[in-house]
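One chain given next:
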Amino acid sequence: MDAPAAQEDGLPPAQRRRAVLAVMLVLAQAVLLAAQVNVALPGIARDLAADPAATVWIVNAYQLAVVATMLPFAALGDRIGHRRVFLAGTAAFGLASAACALAPSLPLLIAARFVQGLGGAATMSVQPALLRFSYPHAQLGRAIGNTAMVVAISTAVGPSAAAALLAVADWPWMFLVNLPLALLGLALGAPALPRDAATRSAADGRFDALAALLNAAAFGLVFVGLYALAARPVLGVVALCGGLAAGAALVRRESGAPAPLLPLDLLRVPAIGLAVAASVCNFAGQMTAFVALPFLLQHDLGRDQVETGLLITPWAVAVALVAPLAGRLSDRFSTATLCAIGGALTATGLALLAALPHAAGTAGFVALLALAGLGFGLFQTPNNRAMLGAAPRARSGGAGGLQGTARLSGQTLGSTVVGLTFLAVPQAAPATALALGACFALAGGAVSLGRRLRADRPVG
C-alpha cells in the first residue's frame, strides 16, 4: 500500500524516522565504499593480473558516472518523483555491487563500477529533496547537519573498515556486503519515503533526453580532460574543448526553459548562485588538502601509511562533531555569516599547515587539521541549507543536483590543482598545494559574504 503523500511541512514523525533512516543508510554505504576502494586497489591489481596504474579507473569510472549524470537524475526526480529515482538508484547500486564482486577481469569490474556510479548518482541527486519533503522547514538545517555528520563518520571509518574486512576476507566481499544493505534500504524506503507528486508538473513531465546527453558529454569530457591534462596534455586539451563545446550547446538549448535540466533558473537566484560558487571553492580546498596531505606526511615528515591515515582522520571527526551544531545554528542565524566564519577557519588551518609542517609536531598537526575540519563543517551545512532552502519546492531536485555537482566539480578542481602543482614545483608541491587550498577556502568564505540576508530565505 502506498505511503501517504508528503505534507507541506514534512512527514509525520514516525514515518519521517523510517524515511530518513533509509536515506542515511543508502548514503552511508555509498560514502563508505568510496572511502574503502582505494585501500583494495593493490589486491585487486594482483588478483586480476592488472596493471596497477589501470586500476585507478576503478575509482575514476564511478566518479565519471556520478559527475556526468547527477543533474539529469535530479531533473528526472522533479518530473517523475524523487522517491522513484531514489529507489531505482538504490536497486542499481546493489545489483552493480554484486556484479563488481563477481567480475572476472578488470574491464568488467570497471564497467560494473560505472553502473554502480549511475546508481549512486541517482540516490545522491534526490537525497536533499527527499530530506526537504521529510522534515519541517524549520528543521531543514538540522536535517542537512545530520547528513553531513553521517558522511563525515562514514569517510572517517571507511579506510579502517576496509582494512579490517580485507584482513579476514578477499576484496570481492567489500562490494558484496552492499547488496543486503541496498535491500534493507529498499525495504525501509519503499513504504516510508515521501511521495512528492506536486513537483512533477515541471515541463509537463517531459524529460529532455538530448539535454541529458549534452550534460553528460559536457561534465564527462571536462572530467576526463582535467585528469588527463597532467600526463597527456594534448588529450586533456581536446577533451576539455569538447566538454566546453557540449556545455555551450546545452546552455543554448536550456535557455528560457521553464524547468531546465541544467538549472540556470536556480543559478539566477542570488542565494543559490553564490552558494554554488562558494561550495565549488571550499570543496576544491578540501580535496587539495586531502590529496596533498599524504605526500606531506610521508615524503616531508617521514610518516608511514598507517600513521598517515590516523593523522588525517581528525578532519572528518571535526566535521562529524560540528555538523549537527552548524545545522541547528543555520536554522536560527544568517547562513552567510556562518559560511564566512567556516571558510576563514578552514583557510587558517590549511595555511598554518603549509607554513609550519615541521615545527608543528604531531599534536600541532592534529590541532591544525581539526581546525580546518571544524571550519569545513561550519561552512558545509549552512551553505547547503542556503542552496536547498532558497529553491522553490517544485525545484528541490534541481537544487539537490546542483549541490552534488558543485561538490564534485570542486573536488575535481582540487585534485587537478595538486597534479599541476607537482609538475610546476615538485620540491615544494605539498606545502604549495595546501597554501592554494587555503586560498580556495578563503575565497569560498568571501563569496558567502556576498549573500544578503534576504537571499538566505526561501523563495518558494
